[in-house]
Design brief:
Elements lengths: L2 H10 L2 H13 L2 H11 L10 H14 L4 H10 L7 H8 L4 H16 L21 E10 L19 E8 L4 E8 L6 H16 L4 E5 L8 H7 L3 E5 L6 E3 L6 E4 L5 E9 L8 E9 L5 E6 L9 H9 L3 H11 L11 H29 L8 H18 L2 H8 L5 H11 L33 H6 L4
């Protein structure tokens, strides 16, 4: 068997790696990366190392080497892909401007969205029926931790150090992050970043009505108005620090949800006094069994078009972005930061989100063929097998031969057809998400132990005091 035939067969036997390499080949085409660099480089410049080469080396570090930049850079030098020293490569990472990182995620995700299955009858992450024709975005901020104290000014500090901060928008319908606004100061305020993120959400909606789902930090007199001014609607966790004045002309409504819990709907004014800053909203309060309540406010006043139970369920989905942050930290090695400077940290964070989106496209195709919700497929289990296959492809084929096999960058239509056919029979039961072990979400009382430590043996013997 000649080399080409062997490489073709080897790639065909690693279908997950084949799919992801083709997704990245389309999404991160060199001409697009060069154009992205030219539009967002600021005062940075290229001499010997091109931005597209650096981007592909970072991909290798995150997908194959557990976040180790040195492993990727040393292998890049060995394969003549990295024409400069490793220390200069780290310097290059440490000078990338934040707008470049933001554009990488936003525009890269737009390119990925062209590759989704495109079947209107299939929803990988279904939403309540009232959001038909809407784009729904969950929003949250992320402070990036686990900074290595490699920079000399950091070495003598006895303090937790934050590398950078970003506010991120998650499309709850596709499960992909569609935009972020970053700040080099990890202690920067989250609300100001999210205000700048509104324009990205409006652009990601592409002319469709859109909804921003936000936590109680944004329950004030100013931020809901900014969402409306950006062309969107809001669903925000109510915070008692902001006064709600019920409308005496409109009676409150009560109902029960599917679990028999009481829901109270009220209409009224947000703010103590009437005036130009006051906002008329609907407040929905869910009374939980333990006596606690969950309240949300929204500018969508029609209780028939937007049922209270659907809005409460939609707010619960906002936690999806917290799961994204958790998974990119564990799955894509955000705990192992390639650089220590805020610019390098923000760039790696953006790349982790883009690779997470790539995994969601792969998971969506698998869910499409299994006729199930994408949420039932484990990201962690899928990525474990994907990583094994990508390493196998790298060892058996090599970078240059792989690029020859991938050929010219295909059109979105051609690649969607390839992914549908190639992933049709790719499945193992190991990828199902394990059932929850939370026991219904009830917290068990914990027993305090004398001295605050004991042994497993004593616990099992029942001799702890």
């Amino acid at each position: 068997m000649d080399d080409i035939a062997f490489s073709t067969e080897a790639l065909a036997r690693q279908p997950l790696a084949d799919a992801v390499w083709r997704l990245l080949h389309f999404t991160m085409a060199d001409d697009w990366l060069d154009d992205l660099w030219g539009r967002n480089r600021g005062r940075c410049y290229e001499r010997v190392l091109k931005f597209s080469t650096l981007a592909h080396l970072v991909v290798d570090a995150l997908l194959e080497h557990g976040g180790s930049g040195r492993q990727s850079f040393e292998r890049g030098q060995e394969d003549d892909k990295l024409p400069i020293s490793i220390s200069s490569t780290y310097d290059k990472l440490g000078n990338l401007p934040p707008p470049l990182s933001e554009a990488l995620l936003g525009e890269g995700t737009q390119r990925l969205h062209k590759l989704l299955p495109g079947d209107p009858a299939f929803e990988p992450f279904p939403l309540p029926a009232c959001w038909a024709g809407y784009e729904v975005f969950g929003v949250d901020g992320k402070a990036i931790k686990h900074i290595k104290r490699l920079l000399k000014p950091l070495r003598g500090l006895r303090a937790g150090i934050l590398g950078a901060r970003a506010s991120v928008a998650l499309n709850l319908r596709t499960g992909t992050t569609v935009g972020m606004v970053g700040h080099l100061d990890g202690e920067a305020g989250e609300a100001a970043l999210t205000e700048d993120l509104l324009a990205q959400m409006a652009a990601a909606a592409a002319g469709w009505p859109w909804l921003a789902v936000l936590d109680r930090l944004y329950c004030n007199l100013g931020f809901p108005r900014r969402v409306l001014d950006a062309g969107g609607h809001f669903l925000i966790r109510y915070c008692s620090n902001t006064t709600f004045v019920a409308d005496p002309a409109r009676a409150a409504q009560e109902s029960l949800d599917a679990q028999g819990r009481r829901i109270v709907q009220e209409w009224g004014r947000l703010g103590k006094v009437e005036g130009p800053r006051a906002l008329y909203v609907r407040r929905i309060t869910l009374h939980l069994a333990d006596g606690k309540v969950i309240s949300v406010i929204t500018d969508l006043l029609d209780e028939d078009a937007y049922p209270a139970e659907d809005l409460l369920a939609t707010y619960q989905e906002r936690w999806g972005i917290e799961r994204v942050f958790h998974q990119i930290t564990d799955v894509f090695s955000l705990k192992h930061l390639i650089g220590s400077s805020p610019e390098a940290v923000l760039f790696q964070f953006s790349f982790c989100l883009l690779l997470y989106n790539t995994l969601q496209v792969l998971r969506t195709y698998l869910a499409f063929h299994q006729k199930c919700q994408a949420e039932r497929i484990s990201n962690e289990k899928l990525f474990y097998d994907l990583k094994r296959q990508m390493i196998a492809v790298d060892e058996m084929i090599g970078n240059e031969q792989l690029l020859d096999l991938l050929g010219e960058v295909p059109t979105a239509v051609e690649l969607r057809k390839h992914l549908r056919e190639n992933l049709r029979h790719v499945w193992t039961k190991r990828w199902w998400k394990a059932p929850s072990s939370r026991g219904g979400g009830h917290k068990k009382a914990k027993t305090r132990v004398l001295g605050n430590h004991t042994s497993t043996y004593r616990v099992l013997q029942g001799t702890i005091t």
